[in-house]
């Protein structure tokens, strides 16, 4: 965003960026150190792209924030996660330096956690010549979308081997994690694990497959089927695709829609099943649904790849909301109890 619009038109990310830019470095650091890599990346990039923010817009954002937290006893921020590369990218080395120092002071980021802040290609380069089992543990530890991006940097044979190992993982013993952290600490710093950790598994493999580019996904799935047909069927059943959102209850759909930009929703629905489109329409106000229908009709031809990117973005929102307990995913991607 090169020019900030009216305060009421700002997205949640834009409001967060304005709020943090209004604080001093020390206070901003205390907030950012509780965020994960994805949140920091989005906010940092937005901060870098903002300009011409009006005084009344800042005042409106601050007023909205005070109203939002006025009846709360705390912000409910999560535990770990420390800002690294994205602040440098957003603010530059000089401006970000002191902020990063404050956030990382006394931190306990492990070698594995450090990988979360790196580009997928860089992580692939770090683990490229390690044992395949080490590669599988790293892939399993990271978020599924980042893991999918890392796999894209390997050839087909290596991708298949790693994903099969991910699906076979259940727990990782201390010795294995110690070995992995020792490898990573040659470039980073970290602590050694002291307890066995549940990691990987068929569901992790399915989640990674959800984020792999569709042109690679079909080929990889066929290779998995050739190696183990039962495993391929299980992964296929667990994969959660956009049209599976039709099994989410109405309240859940409404929660998802509040988190999705209209442009993304239009693209995603362009390639959706008519029943899925109707599911969305009925969970909007009549006026909003009519506007969305008009936008869909006015939308010209779009690339299938653009539709897939938009649908995966919405799926990522749905998984995040499900992980936080705000919604329950139905269908193949999540079991109902």
UniProtKB/TrEMBL annotation:
Ranges where the Flagellar motor switch protein FliG C-terminal domain occurs: 222-329
Protein name in the entry: Flagellar motor switch protein FliG
Annotated source species: Marinomonas sargassi
Iron keyword on record: no
Domain spans labelled Flagellar motor switch protein FliG middle: 121-193
Record keywords: Bacterial flagellum, Cell inner membrane, Cell membrane, Cell projection, Chemotaxis, Cilium, Flagellar rotation, Flagellum, Membrane
Membrane topology note: Peripheral membrane protein
Listed NCBIfam families: fliG
Membrane recorded as keyword: yes
InterPro entries linked: Flg_Motor_Flig, Flg_Motor_Flig_C, FliG_a-hlx, FliG_M, FliG_N
SUPFAM superfamilies membership: FliG (SSF48029)
Main location as per UniProt: other
Family the entry assigns: Belongs to the FliG family.
Highest taxon above the source species: Bacteria
Location(s) in or outside the cell: Bacterial flagellum basal body; Cell inner membrane
Biological function: FliG is one of three proteins (FliG, FliN, FliM) that forms the rotor-mounted switch complex (C ring), located at the base of the basal body. This complex interacts with the CheY and CheZ chemotaxis proteins, in addition to contacting components of the motor that determine the direction of flagellar rotation.
Domain Flagellar motor switch protein FliG N-terminal: 10-110
